[in-house]
Write a structure and sequence with these properties.
By secondary structure, the protein is an alpha+beta fold. The chain folds into 2 domains: about 180 residues, Regulatory protein AraC (Jelly Rolls, Sandwich); about 110 residues, Orthogonal Bundle (Arc Repressor Mutant, subunit A). Helix content is about 40%, strand content about 20%. The protein has an 8-stranded mixed sheet with strand order 10-11-1-12-3-6-13-14, with helices on one face. A 6-stranded mixed sheet has the order 5-4-7-2-8-9, with no helix packed on it. A hairpin with a 2-residue loop joins strand 10 and strand 11. The longest helix is centred in the middle third of the chain and has 21 residues. It is globular and about 65 Å long.
Length: about 325
Amino acid sequence: MDTLTGLLDGPRARGAFLLRTVLEPPFALRIQDEAPLTLVTLVRGSAQIVHDTAVTLHPGDVAVIRGPQPYTVADDPATPWQTIIHPGQLCTTVDGVPREHLGVRSWGDPVHGGTEMITGTYQLESEISRRLLGALPTVLVQPAAATDRTLVGLLAAEMTGNDPGQELVLDRLLDLLLVSVLRAWLASADTGVPAWHRAGSDPIVGPALRLLHSAPDGPWTVATLAARAGVSRSLLARRFTELVGEPPMAYLTGWRLTLAADLLRSPDTTIEAVARQVGYGSAFALSAAFKRERGVSPQQFRRQNPEKHFTAYDPGPSPVVILT
């Protein structure tokens, strides 16, 4: 499993909030829904995302916005807020009056507005994605020239449909659009791209990373990883630490506990079963490691993070990135 697969393997969109918005300037939407990840695709017109700084979107651009901090989508940063998007995607005026939809997955001005955008919001956060989500810039913009216009066109065409399975189709299209933007970012020269992703292409560290990701429950040691990678133990340990930023076994522990945290969100999975899946010999061994690293037991974590809840977290300030 590579790192991008790990991002979406757990939190594939399931009933993601998708909305086509049509607006006539001046407009300003204050987004404070606390969602962990949102995609905004501009179909026509122009808009600005104001998140500390203002970023202009042009038709065909796709913006990935990392939550849960609030931000504004407006025609101009100076335009006063007119609409508030609350948690649960409740849409009201600034006075708290609910706003009505125009039709199926459509909202905005009842006339033909000059700006049209499609918003897709992931409602759930997976612990598997935390490692990559924490590295994402606050706002990541892929310009129209680098965006798959066929994919955007399909998403726009499906937005107003109501056929059987429509929700599933939209979820998968949203996933594909997100993956296309993230792949471009990870392949870019942006200095914010995490070191452990760049290490995946290293001829020494890459094979070891793939082994750890594909079989986290394996009885791995530095020696067994080095043997499978065809290098000496000392070379692998030194190279891995240089490129990834931590030794192989420390990385494995973090990866196992990340996977465990994601699996613990399912109430139907026992802690013993989770322990086996991520490479711990017993529930006790997992509990000891989990509490040592996260400060709470698996049982406490499960109570604090039920399956249909996402945790608002702040990985720290990151820049706005516009892919070129």
